[in-house]
Amino acid sequence: MGKLKTPDWILKGEKKPSEKKKQGKTYRVKKCPKCGSTEVSIVLVGEEEKKPENWECKSCKWRGRDIEEKEMSEDEFLEHLEKMENRPGVADSGGK
Fold first, then answer.
1. Which of 73, 64, 76, 71 lies closest to 35 in space, CA to CA?
2. Tens-digit pLDDT profile for residues 28-41
3. How much is the CA Rg of the chain, to the nearest whole Å?
4. pLDDT tens digits along 38-70
5. Would the pLDDT of 79 be above 80?
6. Which residue segment(s) compose the domain that 73 sits in?
7. Which of 64, 65, 81 is closest to 29 using CA atoms?
8. Which residues have CB under 8 Å from 41's CB, separation 6+?
9. Alpha carbons 29 and 33: distance in angstroms, whole number
10. Is residue 40 part of a domain?
11. 20 to 30 Å CA-CA from 71: which of 4, 19, 23, 87?
């Protein structure tokens, strides 16, 4: 194993550069790789103990394993939920 190099920011006496990571809570939302819809669900097939590896898009009926994932900040996630609630045809699950 070779000798590690001291980062330039330390040699210059500077503060550590900030990492570009979202502040606060982050949410991961699954989305369809075909149409980009977040209306995706797991298809349960096979044995109970095994991990489900099949997904289905409710919008375009795509089925597969290679689901995409989008990371959102809390504000982005709340805005996404509001859009989903205001879409026509989305059932109210509030039990009213």
1. 64
2. 999 999 999 999 99
3. 21
4. 999 988 776 666 665 689 999 999 998 888 898
5. yes
6. 24-84
7. 81
8. 55, 56, 58
9. 12
10. yes
11. 87
In a domain, 95, yes or no: no
| Separation in Å, CA 95 to CA 19, 39, 85, 92 | 43, 20, 14, 7
Q: Do the Cβ atoms of 87 and 39 come closer than 8 Å? A: no
| Side-chain-facing half-sphere of 82: CA atoms under 13 Å | 6
In a domain, 90, yes or no: no
Q: How many domains does the chain have?
A: 1
Split at pLDDT 50, 70, 90, the class of 19 is low
Strand ranges, E, within the chain: 26-31, 40-43, 54-57, 63-64, 68-73
Q: Is residue 75 part of a domain?
A: yes
- The amino acid that residue 47 corresponds to is E
